[in-house]
Amino acid sequence: MGGYAWVTLATNDAYSLGALVLAHSLRRVGTKYELAVLVTPGVTSMMREKLAAVFSLVQEVNVLDSKDEANLALLARPELGITFTKLHCWRLTQYEKCVFVDADTLVVRNCDELFEREELSAAPDVGWPDCFNSGVFVFKPSQQTFASITAFAAAKGSFDGGDQGLLNMYFNDWARKDISKHLPFIYNMCSTATYSYLPAFKQFGEDVRIIHFIGITKPWLQYFDTLTGIVQPPAGTPHLQPLLQLWWNIFCDKVHPQLSPAMAGLAGALAQMTLGEPRSAEQIALEEHMRKQSWEQGQIDYMGRDSFDNIWKKICETLSLAPSRQPSPPKTTSEDETKSEKKEEAEVAKEANTDLIIQSEGNNEINSPAGTEDSN
Ligand code: UDP
Ligand code: MN
């Protein structure tokens, strides 16, 4: 056995979109090594087919496998969450060495040199630089290490409830012992750094090899205009636009044509989108959803589509109370007042907007269009 591989993880079809774009980004920069993806039963068979077209290995793993002693122990700690599934990467013993990359990363330049590093090499976390960020790390598959980490997890847990806290506790000498295990930040550039330290991004941004869209900056959750092909970054983060745009360009070029409506949630909805053409009803519904998500993250297009007039129109339509001529919105006085009132009205509109909004659920997956019993 032997060989090197890039490994990622997807537990649902939405994260699989990230995995697909990541895989294409790796192919685009001409990596010499194999691509492997761990999937859980939450990934549809249609999506697995598409993953198999670009990954050389699509390995099903279980989130909580009752036949697995180590995972049984973990069962007592359900809150440790789905990112523990990542630990299964140590079981890929058909490879000699691997680099784990989160599904929300994008490789922008060839970085096959990472395989020269040893376990456990990783870049500092932007929040606490004495910890490594577990979105990109070099590791050596080993059943023994897998057993040891899961036993450790069962005994000690994770200080942050996720894989990062656990792995930092397990590989606890990373901060001090061996500087060669510290990957330069350009191998895991957390997208938030582009605006928290803009001068550094200006200076070194050209050298970036792997972008990591941590937290709410997941590219597939941003508002994307299907007509213009432009993605809108989260509020206050304009510097993210070119990075998000790169993700969407690869998505539109390589991934979108492969999507099927049989896929779950967001992936299935995106499959019904046409690009660069007038919008279909499904597309309008999807874009409404994306906009709602942006709204929940504080991105409100006050002057455009979220303007009071549009909200008012929507309320009237949704409540089926709209007379043939819609009433004009109530008059307001100062600009500030208008803004806060708009916000309140917007809340009402959000509540009433049941026919187009697609409901959000955990894990960033979404269901079919709402208007069903449990919609709010
Ligand atoms: N992941 C997944 N499904 C989930 C959450 C996470 O497949 O519902 C995987 C995916 O590979 C993801 C990684 O676990 O990139 C870590 O989670 P995430 O990237 O959301 O964490 P962050 O980097 O924002 O801390
Ligand atoms: Mn991540």
Automatic annotation (TrEMBL):
Cross-referenced InterPro entries, in alphabetical order?
Glyco_trans_8, GNT1/Glycosyltrans_8, Nucleotide-diphossugar_trans
For the region Disordered, give the residue spans.
321-376
| Compositional bias annotation for Polar residues | 356-376
Q: Which GO terms describe its biological process?
A: glycogen biosynthetic process
Could you tell me the EC number(s) of this protein?
2.4.1.186
Task: Specify residue ranges for compositional bias: Basic and acidic residues.
Answer: 333-353
Q: Which domain of life is it from?
A: Eukaryota
Instruction: Tell me what organism the protein belongs to.
Output: Odynerus spinipes
Q: What is this protein called?
A: glycogenin glucosyltransferase
Q: Which family does it belong to?
A: Belongs to the glycosyltransferase 8 family. Glycogenin subfamily.
Q: Name one Pfam family in it.
A: Glyco_transf_8
What's one GO MF term for it?
Answer: glycogenin glucosyltransferase activity
